[in-house]
């Protein structure tokens, strides 16, 4: 699906989910950001497969993958965990998106997890959650999709996006519906969001990898 602009993460995710639901009302889906790093991809894949198994058995819940934090990071979202459902699987008490440093320190001490934004669930669980938390966003998306034909590539109408306010999936859909969520803890896997060049560089340096040519230019610009 091609967006005509940036309206945050909620509109494209919900538009995609509605498109999947039109093709298969019983689908179990995963949402995976494309700019993340995992130190052990095989271990990550095993955890993702476990999330699919959990979602298949608990069709009213959405499963979030949570990473063990290595410090009080203020640029990530945090998942505050609740009661244990089983080993490595917890209820979700709440979300904290990019908290201030003192709050991040407290979350670290309380055993909160970093939100990887990897989500797995039955298509109905996602859409029921959106219906409860963001009905004014879901309604125009549904209406627009009804006029769209299934093709290899779907272009979201610019006229639709002109009407939508910016909205964040974590803040506006997940956070108000924490009772519908479960979090599955990744194992001893190093995880980073590579959405900023500095984090790409720090991840490469930590792995003693060869730095790409653009790094020198980026570092010069940053100074």
Textual characterization of the structure:
The protein is an alpha+beta fold. The protein folds into two domains: 10-189, Spore Coat Polysaccharide Biosynthesis Protein SpsA, Chain A; 190-223, no CATH class. The chain is 42% helix and 22% strand. It has nine helices and eight strands. Strands 3-6-4-5-7 form a five-stranded mixed barrel. Helix 1 (10-23) crosses helix 4 (123-133) and helix 1 (10-23) packs across helix 5 (135-145). It is globular, with a radius of gyration of 19 Å. The protein starts with 9 loop residues before the first helix and ends with a helix. The relative contact order is 0.23.
Shape descriptor reads globular
Strand content bin:
15-25%
**Assembly annotation:** single chain
CATH topology of the largest domain: Spore Coat Polysaccharide Biosynthesis Protein SpsA, Chain A
Give me the number of helical elements: 9
CATH homologous superfamily identity of the largest domain: Spore Coat Polysaccharide Biosynthesis Protein SpsA, Chain A
Major sheet characteristics: 5 strands, mixed, barrel
Which structural class do you get from the secondary structure elements?
alpha+beta
Radius of gyration: 19 Å
> Any idea how many domains?
2
CATH architecture of the largest domain: Alpha-Beta Complex
Give the total of beta strands. Answer: 8
How much helix is in the residues? 40-55%
Q: What is the strand arrangement across the widest sheet?
A: 3-6-4-5-7
Could you name the key traits of this structure?
9 helices, five-stranded mixed beta barrel, 223 residues, 2 domains
